[in-house]
Amino acid sequence: MQEPSHPRKQAVLRAPGTPSVPWHALIPEAVLEQLSTTPHGLTDVAARERLGRYGPNVLERSRPDSAWKLLWRQIDSPLIWVLIASAALAILLGKVTDGLVVAAVVVLNTAIGFVQEYRAGRAIEALNHMVPESAHVLRDGHLVARPAAELVPGDVVQLASGDRVPADLRLLHSRNFQVEEAALTGESVPASKHVAAVAGDAELGDRASLAFGGTLVTSGTATAVVVATGSATELGRISHLMEQATDLSTPLTRELARLGRVISAGIVVLSAVLLGVGMLRGYAFSDAVLVAITLAVAAIPEGLPAIVTIALAIGVQRMASRRAVIRKLPAVETLGSTTVICSDKTGTLTRNEMTVQALWTQAGHYALTGVGHTPMGDLLRGGSPLEETPGDVQALLVAGVLCNEADLQPREGRWGMTGDPTEGALLFAARKAGLGVTELRERHPRLDAIPFESEHQFMATLNAGGPEQAELFLKGAPEVVLRRCGPGTDRDAVLAEVERMARQGLRVLAFARKGMPRAQALRMQDVEDGFTLLGLQGMIDPPREEAVASVRACHAAGIRVKMMTGDHPGTAEAIGLQLGIHAPGHPGLTGARLSAMSDAELAGAVQDTNVFARLAPEHKLRLVRALQTQRHVVAMTGDGVNDAPALKQADIGVAMGITGTAVSREAADLVLTDDNFATIVAAVEEGRRVYDNLVKSLAFVLPTNLGLALILMLGVTFFPLQEAGGVREPLLAMRPTQLLWINLVATVTLALPLAFEAKERHVMRRRPRAPDTPVLSHFVVMRTCLVALLMAAGAIGLFLWEFTRQGGGHDASNPQALAEARTMAVNTVVSFQIFYLWLCRTLTGSTREVGFTQNPTVFMGIAALVLLQAAFMYVPFLQRLFGSAPLSLGDIARSVLVGACVLPVVGLEKWLRSRRREPGQSVSAT
After folding, report:
1. Between 778-805 and 677-718, two packed helices, what is the crossing angle to 10 degrees?
2. Cα 152 off chain centre by
3. Residue 886 pLDDT > 70, yes or no?
């Protein structure tokens, strides 16, 4: 990891005079004293001095990798180095055409990888867009606008609704001040802020006396003092965590890299052996080296990188049609091997629409059905719908409508809401009970109000009740409202009901009412006592219906689902129970408990716990790492800045496209355009299909490379040398350029249709494969050897038959006979490939199971190759380039007939294997 380029990194980590007690636990006067400032702010001179000492209010950025470094990363691969060496040696030996063709393959593969990595996300840069361009700050006692980058600790700023908080601030004065900080904490509703100090060990979401840089003011006004800027802010801390997070290679890239190393080592050894064999048989040194180069060209699957890249790109397109946008190609396959999905709660597993579900009055309990921003639902008592709304419930709901600042508007056939989500839920609850919001407000117009203040935790409105009378409605925290109710209220019973609702994860509001003279103005002392309790309303952000089914599908597929949220533990556990994630009686883990655990303790706890609440960014990052140490492939979902480090660390990061911040989207590998957990499950299914089809492609490609290597090795070892002008030369069944034709043109053309194959029948009813499962299982290796032997035997047999029939014998003076024989060998290999393609559409079952016409691209691939092979044989330019010759229809028929022998042989092998295979077993299973 590179060090950030900012020269004052250590200096800006702490504000001047930072106390041992956290800022949120100090009273405002103590904060000002520690920062050596006043309620009127700093002078311009002092601010400039601090700016020079502590640096600008910007986030540090690591320097991205240069284009040269990215390019080198594509070249630094064993297979690429073998190809580069082969191309260089061929050119040095005078085989310029062969060398240039091999070099072109290297350039193509390098370019594909370079473009893919160059377009990777720039997550840390996106953090800078969350810092506003300017702020209103007190300098020399005057309110002025200054660039946010010039703010320093000790500056006093003023904030109003709609402002983005420019730095981490300690509130000095506030009125009805609320901040949307879901991006940092995961809370689904705006956080109420106040001046009073809070406990020093309060979690991030409970630090109500602080406003954090990058969050958004949704209502009210405040005056606050800057306590941290730049890298010392919560945003800066998250930026530092993102630098600590590591980009992990995917299971497929790791396996392909291991396969590349194995193939490269094998090629080097075999080339050295073949070089020695050639020298022992009397080859000239240059000819022996050419044979070794030819073996490398034959054995290296040059088309494999292109096949893998195109197959993944096809998966990207299919996922996009299912509302999942892939930002990094390897993430397609990683989804298929996911063993754990760590999901944020708000907006992903839940609707992000607060909904009233429970009502309580002195008469008993009631329930409201229906979810989200819709007035559709029923009022239930004892599980049965009520035809009419009882008077006690009606009074409770009316209070929720009148003591309310939100509003409803029908929008294009559906309902919209403006205002606080909690207050909007109260309006939808009234609509479900048949109450008209507009009619009620017109019948009882508001006369006066005391707006909600976080310090006193209630709101009060005075509404007309008659010609001479008015009604005072009170809404707020239950304990606050209860203190203002008369002696007839059974406080213990009410608090017991509040506790019962809270255990269900409901957010509870209490409502009360009292009469007043209409002409009287509303004063603070009017809300001190004398109220009659109307009841309680309990609300929650309910789970998505499709998320419940998707969690079940994950469990059936052997994937664990874990909820990681910054919300309250009770709410998280209640949602977890409804989703089937959380087990009753098994408490979740909070961030505070997690912080006290050692790495070993956490590794054990993370296996058995599925609900994690009150998490800070470093907690999520640590949880993901703990799962990865247990050999899990982790998919992490999130939408906020607080999720970005964990998104980057996870094997696959999944961000929300609608509610997600730019930071989370840039840190992620996958973006959901509908913010729906069900889309993740669809993407997992698509990822498994992509992996299965990649295994099919490997099983199709590798027999060709092994077969070509066998053809060359058998020829060098056993074929007699040919005489040409008194010089003995090796008799090779194929030229290097012909081997490249098969590897790049024929193989790629036929392998690509396999990427379009439909998913296996049991794809989501099998457990995820282990991350270290070799992509070349015992089954694939055995199939590769079987088909390669058949291919080599058929190609060598027809090559010798044709060469002898044309009168070539051991005399190289008949180049036409040699060209026709080599063309015959190429045609035979291509025929094997065409027939074997049908068998690879399903590696373990019968082709009838997938349907002959279900994948029309197979016919397109075969037709394209037939035309290309005809050009290979009959176009003069290609004849000169590849050393091919025209063949008669009889010769073509013989090569096709020999190639067809793969059908009964592999068909028998499939039948024998199917008798031992378990239902739903993966195509790559041993």
Report:
1. 40
2. 36
3. yes
Task: Please tell me the predicted confidence (pLDDT) of residue 444.
Answer: 95
Check pLDDT > 50 for residue 9.
Answer: no
Could you give phi then psi for residue 732, rounded to 5 degrees? Answer: -105, 140
Rounded CA-CA distance 839/862 in Å is 14
* Number of Cα atoms under 13 Å in the Cβ half of residue 344: 35
Tell me the C-alpha distance between 356 and 537, whole Å.
7
- In this structure, are residues 105 and 740 in contact, taking their beta carbons and an 8 Å threshold? yes
Helix axes 902-914, 815-840, angle to 10 degrees: 30
Please give the Cα distance from 580 to 566 (Å, whole number). Answer: 20
CA 125 – CA 148 distance, rounded (Å) = 17
Instruction: Give mean pLDDT, residues 896-910.
Output: 93
Q: What would the pLDDT profile of 86-103 be if each residue is shown by its tens digit?
A: 778 778 767 676 677 778
Between the alpha carbon of residue 60 and those of residues 52, 57, 124, 152, 647, the distances in Å are: 16, 10, 9, 16, 20
DSSP state for residue 345 in the 8-state scheme: I
37, two tokens: 């400032």
Average pLDDT along the chain: 84
Q: Are strands 670-672 and 652-656 parallel, antiparallel or unpaired?
A: parallel
CB within 8 Å of 887: residues ≥ 6 apart: 820, 823, 824, 827, 873, 895
The DSSP annotation for 569-580 comes to HHHHHHHHHHHT
Q: What is the pLDDT of residue 635?
A: 93
Rounded CA gap, 579 and 56, in Å? 46
Catalytic residues: 344
Q: How many CB atoms lie within 10 A of CB 391?
A: 10
Number of alpha helices (DSSP H) and beta strands (DSSP E) in the chain: 34, 28
Q: Which residue has the higher pLDDT, 892 or 456?
A: 892
**311, amino acid identity:** A
Partnered with residue 367 across adjacent β-strands are 358, 380
What's the rounded Cα separation, in Å, for the pair 29 and 195?
Answer: 11
In the chain, helix, strand, coil percent, each to 5? Answer: 50, 15, 30
* 895: number of Cβ within 10 Å: 24
pTM for the model: 0.72
Domains of the chain: 29-62+133-243 (2.70.150.10), 337-350+545-675 (3.40.50.1000), 355-540 (3.40.1110.10), 692-916 (1.20.1110.10)
Distance CA 469, CA 517 (A): 5
- The Cα–Cα gap between 495 and 833 comes to 76
Pairing outcome for strands 722-724 and 191-192: unpaired
Looking up tokens 């810092």 gives: 131
| 681-733 confidence digits (pLDDT tens) | 888 988 888 888 888 988 999 999 899 999 988 888 888 776 655 555 567 88
